[in-house]
Amino acid sequence: MSDGSAGPGAIDLETVRILLARLGISAQDLVNGAAPRVVPTFDEYIDQVADAVPPGTRRAYLTYWRRVRERWGDRRLDEPTASEIKQLAESTRATAVVRSNSRGGRSAGEHMIAALRCIYHHAVADGLLPESANPAIRVPKPRRLASTRHALTDEQLSQVFAIVSTTGNDPELDMLLLRLHTETACRRGGALALRPMDLDGEQCLVRLREKGETVRWQPVSPTLMQHLVAHHQQRGGDDPREQLLRYRSGRPITSRRYDYIWERVGRHLAWVATQQISTHWLRHTTLTWVERNLGYATARAFAGHTGRNDAGSTATYVRADLHDVAAATAALTGEPHPLAKK
How far apart, in whole angstroms, are the C-alpha atoms of residue 126 and residue 38? Predict the structure, then answer.
């Protein structure tokens, strides 16, 4: 009668399986006589991954990939264990830059794990490692805390607009930015990616290209459309494919303009500096108003959320369309919109 213990043969077989997985060799490779692919080092492979991902992903992970190279640059991808990845994430979390809105470095730890998962995802896809040898997927990300952002009150919004319109070296540009974000609830990336060819003046629509390579047409008020067109005529060039939002010199703005705006407002309004108010708070403000007044389905469409993870299955049956979003824009701005449902 068997005592349940594994015999020498079973132990040897399991050892062989582990060794083959570590070397990236499958049983089929042995049958076919195929030579195993050489597993590269992090120094050798990170540049290849960086060239294969979208620019936004590259910007988000570059700092963390640099840290990986500093620690493990000469190591092969199949050498670090799940425990070592967790240790690196904890080290990144502990040494994260402390800001007034920091939350214990949780975001830094999460991004480090995500950056490594990106590397290993490509390594598996390239056939350098089997999925079973991917250590990054066995390291859980830190649980995300609830966001501290919330909708601004009408009074707070008025205070912000008053400061922006009366201070700074280009209040006309800054007011245009704030109105664009307040009317469309777009992200900074969507505003920075706007081009003259993305303006549909007849139907009062702007084409937003945001994170995840999503593209959508977003209604705006006739007044905002007039300001956007005038801005291009005064500051833009002849190429409709170039960036729309520019300084008086004609130079395209960058994300640093947003930093300048909120640092300036924070010097005049203490609560802005204390709570670290940013442009994303305007997105919260607008979407909260739309949801409270026109319902969840319209707010979801207004935000550009279309993924399955954004809501339950009920959203499939109560989906709002472009005309609903146009009606919401009309209600929000107090101006009629050509696409709003009558």
Answer: 12
